[in-house]
Amino acid sequence: MEDERILERERHQMEQIRELDLEELQVEEVDGLHDSSDDDLDATDRVYAGAASSSEFTFNTSLASLHTYLGEVEDTHHRMAFLEGGAIMNLPLFYLEGVVLFPEATLPLRVIQPNFIAAVERALTQVDAPYTIGVVRVHSDPNDGRVRFASIGTTAEIRQYRRLEDGSLNVVTRGQQRFRLRRRWIDVEGSPCGEVQIIQEDQPLRTPRDAFGTLTPFSNLRSQILSHSRPLNASHAKLHRFRDEDNVSESNSEESFESALSLAERRIHHSAVDSCYGGDTMDESTSSDDDMLYHEKQIKMLNWLQGTVLHQEGNLAKENSWIGVGKKTNFNQFRRVPRAFWPFWVYRMYDSYCLAERAADMWKKIVGAPSMDDLVRRPELLSFYVASKIPVSVSTRQELLEIDGISYRLQREIELLESVNLIRCKHCQTVIARRSDMLVMSTEGPLGAYVNPQGYVYEIMTLYKANGLALWGRPQLEYSWFPGYSWTITNCATCESQMGWRFTATNKKLKPRSFWGIRSSQVADDMH
Fold first, then answer.
1. Is the sign of the CA dihedral 53, 459, 46, 41 positive or negative?
2. Which of 24, 162, 215, 421 has its CA 20 to 30 A from that of 466?
3. What integer is the mean pLDDT of 359-376?
4. 156-176 confidence digits (pLDDT tens)
5. What Å distances lie between residue 128 and 89, 92, 184, 221, CA to CA?
6. Under 8 Å between Cβ of 444 and 106
């Protein structure tokens, strides 16, 4: 019965949001949006594509991230320690359509409805997790119209709030930790609540330092391969001697290295090194055929290093010829090679720090972000940072939130950064803009969450240019998310669904002169 009541309330909220989408509007199509020129957009504004670093850019991007339109809000001066992974607790919940909250991202709220006011009041006084609420994305199933709740959400800490005369609340929260929603209900005060389990985040994966060492000198390997009459135990003794010398020269011993690894890293390291040194367990009774097979494997490793594939049927003269060429080459650059079974590039595919560096480089090229060295050293934070700001559809953002594993999340983000190109209307697939049209109007990045006076939260991506849109109504100054800019409702010119807003500077000295804010919930999943 309680579930039916909450579903009915939430369905009513969604219907109110959709009223704006479906309402018959007097549409005035904007001229010239399909080409590169715009009456209100001068040529200098084109330098703002992808970054807000131009000397002509005069807007203070920190104003948007402060959410000054909410008025004065009081700091709670409360910062809660992170909850233990796996902990199960009850939290007041906020169900939001078209919004996905990530750890470390800012979420403003305009709390008007009595049940959600009760939820905030409960969060301010609860003992287990004070000043904390849970945020869960809800959406309408396109097949049957039923309300669906995401299984993964994020805790949000109330950082600032203000109680207005009419009893409503203006709140600024910040995402903290992911959780799994186990069950939900409505308490006696009408506040939506849920039992959540905090997700234990994994540690960043890194390539085991011991998986790569110094290869046996090529001259010695050549002599081992060509001297088939040499006793097997002697060749293995020599290999062991070089490994022993390696171990002496290394600054960190095996024991000290392993002590610095996490349990997962130690397991990967052991399996990799064991697969490499498995040949050391051969005894002296091993046949000469096995000995040849052992050396053939080493030759294949050399072939891999040189980028040369030798024919297996090649004779000894060909092998001697290849090694002879090697005498003229400095092989020291190749000596830092895998001791483990897998080559270096395989480890880099899952090394969280390598992936973080690659994602940061791509992000800086797209949005012109400043140095991200601090985040690169914290891959777990970087993965959430990029996920919270990358301008993709809401469903794709929910997909990123649900990925377990730092390396897997970074891999998916790199894939998106490489492939995201076109921004389309999700209803009619009209191309609205390209990735190169992105504009950073907030220190939060090219995508951020904002709330209107009626309490509806929107995630919008900011663009310096857009196509196929039409304006409705007159520009409004009240409650502007970007101080100094008026806003005008914007619809898709093809299907007339509400896409967002156009923001126009009210001060001639303010640049850019205009830009667009497109709702991520109205963007198609396919962005290729």
1. negative
2. 24
3. 83
4. 999 999 999 999 999 999 999
5. 8, 12, 18, 64
6. yes
